[in-house]
Amino acid sequence: MFSSKFLTVSLVMSVLTLTGCASGDQYKANVYKQGQVNQAQAAKMVQIMAINPAKIEVDNSQGKQAAQIGGAIIGALLGGAAGNRSNNVAAGAVAGGVVGAAAGTMVSDKTLVDGVQLTYVENNRMLSSAQVGKMCEFKLGTALVISTGYSTETRIQPNNDVPCP
Length: 165
Fold this sequence. Notes:
The protein is α+β, with helices and mostly antiparallel strands. It contains three helices and five strands, in the order αβααββββ. α1 packs across α3.
């Protein structure tokens, strides 16, 4: 017979395992929205002077919502199975679904992803920009910056030809 403690622990572990936290890949400099494709965008060359690790906070509300839905479904299944032993499948499924959805709320709506802080020179000015990406994607030297129309947006393109391990 399933205990409520076992059911709760199983739900929490299942929800956390099944929910993919935001990777932040949609914020990388070389990722474009549909409306930005086949559009002219200003480009310029800059000199990267320093590359430092950074953490970038990204939205994980979709991951949280998926965790709540997944938790409710898994909870209902586990609760129904537990209720089956006491001939009360419906009550077990409802209780399990509620517990599972509650477990899903434990997933944060914000998450931190790996990024880089790039210090670069443009028109004899030293500037800095945080980018979602890996340190190994960048190297000191010349890099391409794409401007999509937002005045302060800096999309410094990865400039390291050597693939990340």
